[in-house]
Every structure is written in structure tokens, then in C-alpha cells.
Amino acid sequence: MKKLNIAVVGAGIYGKNHLDAFSTNPNVNLVAVCDLNKEITDRVSKEYGVKGYNDTEEMLLNEDIDAVVVATPDPYHKDPVMTAIKFKKDVLVEKPLATTSEDAYEIIEAAEKAGVRVMVDYHKRWDPASIAVKNKLASPETGKPVRGYMKMDNIYDVALNWLKWSGKSSPVHFVGTHCYDLIRWYMGCEVTQVYAVGHKGILQSKGVDTYDSITAILEFENGCTWTVENAWIIPNGFAKADDGRTEILCENEMIRVDSQKRGVEFFNDNKLSTPNICFIQRYEGRVLGFGIDPMNDFVDCILNYKPFMANLKDGLEAELIAEAVHKSADTHQVVKIERR
Description:
Blueprint: E1 4-9, H1 15-24, E2 28-34, H2 38-48, E3 51-53, H3 56-62, E4 67-70, H4 78-86, E5 90-94, H5 101-114, E6 118-121, H6 128-138, E7 145-155, H7 156-162, H8 171-187, E8 191-199, H9 202-205, E9 213-220, E10 225-234, E11 242-250, E12 254-258, E13 266-267, E14 272-273, E15 281-283, E16 286-288, H10 293-304, H11 312-331, E17 335-336
Parallel strand pairs: 1-2, 1-4, 2-3, 4-5, 5-6, 7-10
Antiparallel strand pairs: 7-11, 8-9, 8-17, 9-10, 11-12, 13-14, 15-16
Helix pairs in contact: 4-5, 5-11, 6-8, 8-11
């Protein structure tokens, strides 16, 4: 079987996961890595034995590449994605596809004209718990979904220390779009309108101008209503960097998921930790888990002409919801989702 020549753009926190995944995938030649930070590029290119670049276009001009992975910070996906499309390369982009619907539409139009495929890494679709919920909702015995609740929150450190660009993002774009995408996948239909309220001031007082927390109500075409909560102000002493829960009330059954506790607890003199054992695990040179599965799935879909589990439409719809949530929180008005 032909191997896929892949380059990774963005070698930061999450880009490292892509580098680990593709350097161990037997169907991939990891060819190059690109990052604006030369210090990072030099270190990573040496560690993985690949060419290092600080300019995406220069990399694509000089290397034989089949597909490009974009793992840059959330607000900076568009430019490298558009560059890859210009060179007619298939793309795997980290979520969100873009942080404005205008950018998302522009990416879609460019990809369609170039005849390339773009997958969005909404990796929670690969979570075994999510797949179990999806299958349960598809069962006729479960009945119609009536009401849903989902929360995904992060500790303070995410906004204050981990992400240097958090002021250009929000809990809505960073974790909320995960929720919107997953709920759309569960429902199998689209959001019609949203109403949201938010809180600002705490992170602003610490130098990050963004929302502390936003609560959104999403109304779907099938009549189901969802409440979604996202925040960046969980105390740093929490058992892990994020907290997530889901509850769905259906006609005949109720579904409940606790994504914070995965059945393993670690204790020391300072705190309790509850690792997400299903997400990404490294062992004896192998990288496993639902955080890695979409990366390997991308390769399989490209090599074997299979449809993506999360495509450009999915990326656009999550962004349309995110924009509507922000607009509603800013204006205190119900916002209808408008599509072109």
C-alpha cells in the first residue's frame, strides 16, 4: 500500500500529539514540520528526524507532501489551511475549523474549487462513551430525545497559562464547539436558534479579555432542547484540567455520562487526580486512545477513499452555533441560525 506523505503545521501542545501519531503510523511518512517559532521547529525536527520549516508555503514548495495537518492555535487555522488547499493538499485541521463563519465559508469554497478534502478533528466523536450514546439514541427502544444537558469546563490554568492566545478565543470556541459538534452528531439534525447568557470580569481582572462562563440553550430541528455550559474558571486544584458531563432525557430512557471520572483515581499528599485513560496513552513507543484515533482515521480515509467522520459541513455548523451563542450572550437576544 502507498504511504501517505504528511507534514504537520503547528508543533505546540497539540501538534506534538499529531507528530507522535504520524511518526508511529505504518502507513505514513512524516516528512516535515512547520512552526513560526524557530526554536520549537529546530527541537522538534531533530527529535522526529524530519525537515523543519518556519513558512508553510516554503515547505510545500520544497517537499513531496500528500496531506497537511494544521494544529496551530484556534484563531490561526485559516492561513495554513488555505495555503495547503492552494497547493491542492488534503487537510486535517484541529477544531474549530475557523473562529468566524466567514472564514469557514471561504475555506469550504476554496476546498471545493481545488478538489481537496478537509477533515476537522472533533475527536470526541471517537470517544467510546460518545459512540455508546450515539448507538443508544439510534435504538428505536430509546424513543425521541426531549431534553439534553452538556457541560465542558476548564481550569483557570488553561486560559491564564496554557494558551497565550486565550484572549483571542473563549470557552465557547475552545470547548464549546466540541459540545455543539457532539450534540449535532447525537441529534442527526441542525440547530435552529440559540439563547445564551455569559459572565465576564474574573478573567478580565487577570489580564485575559474573554468570557469566564457561557450558558447556551440550543433548539434543534427535531424539537429537542439542549443546555450547554462552558467555563474557563474551574479552580486549579480540580482533579484534572477539564470537567465534562452529559444527560439526555428521551421518551423511554435517560442517558447519563460522567466524562470527568473514567474509573481510575490517583492520590498523593496534595490532591486527587482522575486521568482520562481513554484519551491519549503512550506506552513503549505506541500512542493510543480516542485522541489519536481520528489522526489514524484521516490516513485510512485518504488512502482508501472513505468519507470523514467529521467534515467541512460539521466544522461550519459548529462555528455557526458558536457565533450565534456569542451574539446572543452579547445582545441578550434569541439568535436564529442563518445559513447560506
